[in-house]
Specification:
The complex is a heterodimer.
Chain A (H helix, E strand, L loop, with lengths): L9 H51 L1
Chain B lengths: L1 H30 L12 H29 L2 H33 L7 H21 L4 H15 L2 H11 L23 H44 L1
Classes of the chains: A mainly alpha, B mainly alpha.
Chain lengths: 61, 235
């Protein structure tokens, strides 16, 4: 009778899933960071546009 | 109102993607049986193949967007193209990284110059170059035209990668379609393995959809901001 043992490859599985999940997580985080930066810039442009409008309004008067 | 609906749609898609991914992970670890020859490391197969699938799908989406840009000259198609390439490169890297970790105990090496590994790396490098070269072009229309033509030409690497293990002598397993006898690490899928694989593929495809929708939304808003900024400083 022959007996076979399943090789212990558990740590490779853990490492592989770590690579996959960390990779996905980092990409998702990079999107979140870019959205935040964009929102900050949109706010800044809003303020500049408001300033510009009030300047033009002042000149017209 | 429309913006709210779009935002809710994006959130629903992201929620579906996260739920499906959690379900797929649960099936990978608690539903799919352990493979007898490779042991636990075989479980990498479900997400490794799904990542490679998403990378290839994304490069095809980029090529289709490129074609639509050239035909209609609508800048949104350029934004879809660059978003698809960026996501494809991320999933391609994940597929290569997880494949290398799987190969260590199964092939006894992290890397070998096998046709599948070489063609996958070539595909990845072609699209990494796309991202780098695009940055060098300042004029938006020229950049979009270049991106479109490059994505259409680059998509040739997708069938090259897919067919490499079917047409060339390779040790990479072929699970869908006929396999060569010289492959190392192949296995017969049980019904539970197949179900887990299909759920993983679905989860990654929905996740891809969600990421693409968010990435395109980011690009569209970024372009809007750029237009507002140049209008402001031109005055």
């Amino acid at each position: 009778m022959t007996s076979t043992t399943v090789p212990d490859t558990f740590r490779f599985m853990v490492a592989g899933y770590a690579v996959i999940l960390v990779g996905l997580g980092l990409y998702a985080l990079s999107l979140v960071a870019r959205f935040r930066r964009l929102k900050r810039q949109e706010k800044w442009i809003d303020e500049l546009e408001k300033e510009e409008r009030s300047k033009k309004g002042g000149q017209a008067q | 109102m429309i913006r709210d609906r779009e935002s809710r749609g994006r959130l629903a898609l992201a929620g579906a993607a996260v739920s499906l991914l959690a379900a797929a992970l649960g099936m990978v670890f608690w539903y799919a049986p352990r493979e007898a020859v490779m042991g636990e490391v075989q479980r990498l197969f479900y997400f490794h193949v799904s990542s490679a699938w998403v990378a290839m799908l994304s490069f095809v989406v980029a090529a289709v967007s490129g074609g639509l840009y050239l035909a209609r000259r609508e800048p949104t198609w350029d934004l879809v193209g660059i978003s698809a390439v960026e996501i494809g490169v991320v999933f391609g890297l994940i597929a290569i990284g997880s494949g290398s970790i799987w190969a260590r105990p199964v092939w006894n090496t992290w890397w070998t110059w096998d046709p599948r590994l070489v063609t996958t790396s070539v595909m990845e490098l072609v699209y990494a170059a796309y991202l780098l070269l695009r940055q060098g072009l300042e004029e938006p229309e020229q950049r979009a035209r270049f991106g479109a033509v490059y994505a259409i030409a680059g998509v040739l690497t997708v069938p090259m990668t897919f067919l490499s293990i079917r047409l060339l002598r390779s040790i990479h397993p072929v699970l869908i379609g006929s396999g060569e006898s010289g492959t190392l690490g192949g296995f017969a899928m049980t019904p539970r393995m197949l179900e887990t694989f299909l759920v993983s593929l679905l989860a990654f495809t929905v996740l891809y959809g969600a990421l693409l929708v968010y990435r395109v939304h980011l690009a569209v808003r970024g372009r809007g901001l750029e237009e507002r900024r140049s209008a402001l400083f031109m005055d």
